[in-house]
Task: inverse folding
């Protein structure tokens, strides 16, 4: 047990498992090991399970990779996200990879998401960050811009994958913030952004993304997904495809999609 470095546990949709039971398991395991990789699946489970886990995090000073799925949970709220923020902060000096699936957590608001975002400020060695935040009705530009400010300060990031699909309160303001702040990510090689069903985005947002991408000189892979409502704005799409195809010489893999339908970049070049 003491030599255990990789741990994966799946409690997904186990609604009868109690918070105390999960807490006890992690207390025993984490206090007696030096985990480097932790994969935890608790989608569809109760808020208490998540809070108990992070409160009894044990020895996480060596944690390098965290993958956490708490999606499809109508009970998890800002308190749980704040507890998760404390857990991330406690492992900040060792974390290199974070994957968070927070889809469909309707009780979470900008407050909880902002607390989680601010915890990333201390993860100075983070190389890869992935978050799925789709279909969360109480997340707005306020929380998203706080998040963008936090990850933009992590200059060692090489991979960023953001799924904001179906966030109805996301507007061009978030994309303006991306353009102004994420240009600091000089080592970013892979960028994925899903804005499907974000119907408040306009041609201005597309233009801002083009400006951002043109300044990410290390970029090699890019995947963008937009709502179908933007499919007809030819001038901005022409600019975006020109940036990807000609102004970023190191990009070797790229795609633009409109809710599953892929755009031929050269159609607008």
Result:
């Amino acid at each position: 047990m003491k030599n255990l470095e990789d741990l994966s546990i799946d409690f997904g949709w186990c609604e009868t498992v109690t918070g105390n039971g999960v807490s006890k398991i992690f207390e025993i395991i984490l206090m007696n090991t030096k985990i480097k990789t932790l994969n935890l699946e608790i989608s569809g489970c109760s808020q208490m399970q998540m809070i108990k886990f992070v409160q009894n995090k044990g020895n996480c000073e060596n944690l390098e990779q965290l993958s956490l799925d708490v999606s499809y949970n109508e009970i998890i709220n800002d308190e749980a996200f704040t507890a998760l923020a404390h857990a991330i902060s406690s492992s900040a000096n060792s974390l290199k990879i974070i994957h968070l699936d927070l889809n469909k957590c309707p009780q979470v608001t900008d407050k909880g998401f902002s607390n989680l975002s601010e915890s990333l400020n201390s993860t100075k060695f983070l190389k890869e960050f992935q978050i799925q935040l789709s279909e969360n009705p109480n997340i707005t530009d306020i929380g998203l811009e706080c998040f963008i400010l936090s990850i933009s300060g992590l200059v060692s990031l090489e991979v960023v994958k953001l799924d904001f699909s179906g966030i109805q309160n996301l507007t061009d303001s978030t994309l303006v913030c991306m353009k102004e702040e994420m240009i600091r990510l000089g080592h970013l090689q892979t960028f994925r952004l899903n804005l499907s069903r974000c119907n408040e985005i306009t041609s201005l947002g597309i233009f801002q993304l083009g400006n951002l991408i043109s300044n990410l000189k290390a970029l090699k892979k890019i995947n963008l997904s937009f709502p179908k409502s933007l499919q007809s704005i030819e001038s901005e799409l022409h600019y975006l495809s020109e940036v990807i195809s000609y102004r970023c010489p190191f990009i070797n893999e790229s795609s633009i999609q409109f809710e599953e339908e892929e755009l031929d970049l050269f159609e607008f070049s």
Q: What stands out?
A: The first helix runs from residue 19 to 30.
